[in-house]
Amino acid sequence: MAANTEVTGTARSRSVTLRILPPGLYAGRASKVLERSLLVSRKMWLVFVSGIVEPAVYLLAFQIGFGRLVTEVVGPGGEVMSYAAFVASALMVASAMNGAVYDATFNVFFKIRHARTYEGMLATPVGPVDIAMGEVSWSMLRGGLYAVAFLAIMTLLGLSGSPWVVLLVPVALLVAFTFAALGMACVTFIRTVSQFDYIQLAVMPLFLFSATFYPLSVYPEPLRPVVQLSPLYHGVELARQLSVGVVDPALLGHVGYLAALAALGLWVTSRRLAGLLLR
Amino acid sequence: MAAAGERSARELSPLVSAKALVKRFGEVEAVRGIDVEVFKGEAFGFLGPNGAGKSSAMRMVGCVSPRSDGDLRVLDMDPQIDGPSIRARLGVVPQEDNLDTELSIRQNLQVYGRYFGLSRAHVRAKATELMEFAQLTERADDEVDTLSGGMKRRLTIARSLVNDPDLLLLDEPTTGLDPQARHLLWDRLFRLKQLGVTLLITTHYMDEAEQLCDRLVIMDNGRIVAEGSPPELIASYSTREVLELRFAPGESGDVASTVDGLADRVEVLPDRVLLYTENGEAALSATHARGVQPLSCLVRRSTLEDVFLRLTGRTLVD
Ligand SMILES: Nc1ncnc2c1ncn2[C@@H]1O[C@H](COP(=O)(O)OP(=O)(O)OP(=O)(O)O)[C@@H](O)[C@H]1O
Ligand SMILES: [Mg+2]
Questions:
Q1: Domain limits at A99?
Q2: Is residue A64 included in any domain, yes or no?
Q3: Which residues in chain A have their CB less than 8 angstroms from residue B94's CB?
Q4: A-chain residue closest to B166, CA distance
Q5: The dihedral of CA B33, B34, B37, B38: what is its sign?
Q6: Burial class (CB in 10 A: 0-12, 13-18, 19+), A118
Q7: Is the ipTM of this complex over 0.90?
Q8: Domain count, chain A
Q9: TM spans, by residue (chain A) (predicted)?
Q10: What domains can be seen in chain B, in order of their start residue?
């Protein structure tokens, strides 16, 4: 039967993953879960539009308002840059975060607690790890899409100085992936809609205090390590540095931190889905 | 020669084999050590009342619920290790529909096929075929939520066939279907069986079990209380015929002593007295002769319901 042959066909590529994950939780079908989301998303264009409009409004506000009051700051490489450009790259990363978190929380909650969507999937070869990877990848694409739109607006407003800004797209994807994985992990613990307030409670300070609006050096010395715990901080630093073309080893540290958190999020999500649905 | 012998031995090895299988949910022991073997081409049933542990057993076979104790092999593999490979060859109709409410009817079938790794072209053709099977072709592009309960059930059943399964797990497949749809489904399941698909069915409808199952187990309280083909079970636990005497509630108890000795066995229920006998008509004349005046009476053949009553002292469906 066709189904059987494909399982053996993917067996070799799975063997590596199987060493890290418990057997039976992964079938190499994450792409099929993603495919479902793409199909569903065709009906949700309005959500996309709103997700893009919101950060664009922010950007305009900064360009018109703050940009006049605070004209220049010292950028990552020690060079002076316009404040609007300084904030723009951070806002782009934040919009990737918002898009990903929104998708990986509300939509996933609905599927776990109400629609039984995952229960249907789990009766097929698809396992909890496939679901976690598929859903997080989808949230990443969505967050990434917001970021690309944001980048386009930045460019239109003349806020993207160097050609390096194209590198902000992979940064946005990484940030979106990390936040989607963390958001989905959190959602598996949520039982009622009102508990979503906790997620909002976490996202808001992240947005404000991740060196988004002013550099880390502005924070008092003892607070800096706390700020550096924020995944958004590392995303912001990556984006800001790359936007002006400063490439140094610190970039690797930021990428590593985000990737580690993403892996943690995926692991917790898979474990929790298995615990909730495979009882 | 050797190869032929090997092949027949393989065909004889069971598709599902459970030994002392246990499922616990915390304190609750849903399945308390069952032994089951299901062979290729069989239609095997779990018959039992609410809470008997039928669904818990089915979910373990479906590799979506780890066993708490005992041994389980499905398609000659261990569900704990080879879950995905086993599920690739299963079709599952869960007790409660879990259709994808964000997709249309056609998309439900296509996307489900994709989870099995089937090609786009294949699932497109398969979806068309299965919508025909479930008589939902006219509704192909409608949302799932616009379907009636019975239509959703038919779609769930159609969906379970998308990967041409070797083993079909049906957890109360006809619950919520009207009589016509039930008979249609029985007919479809019968045809699948003839194509060599092995069926594992749970139900608390005895007529369904009698119609569909070659062999079945009767479950109660997490245990298997009897096993065999429907005629075998009736032969060993019941008589050929049953005389049912109906009374006003509460009055049946008084009659028990009067009819004593008229049948092999007498069962007294709140509103009925059942006389188990080889010859129902004869027993009926005898009760009339003793002056018993029921509200109504009926002579019928024994069913699995009687077997269940005999084994557990309770009726199957209240
Ligand atoms: N996820 C669960 N958590 C806790 N207890 C459970 C769970 N699933 C089933 N049970 C318990 O296990 C027992 C058997 O339930 P199960 O669903 O297997 O019965 P069933 O034979 O399918 O009944 P029904 O005919 O009502 O579907 C019940 O006592 C039930 O309360
Ligand atoms: Mg059940």
A1: 22-277
A2: yes
A3: 119, 123
A4: A1
A5: negative
A6: buried
A7: no
A8: 1
A9: 45-66, 86-110, 143-161, 167-190, 197-216, 251-269
A10: 11-229 (3.40.50.300), 239-301 (3.30.70)
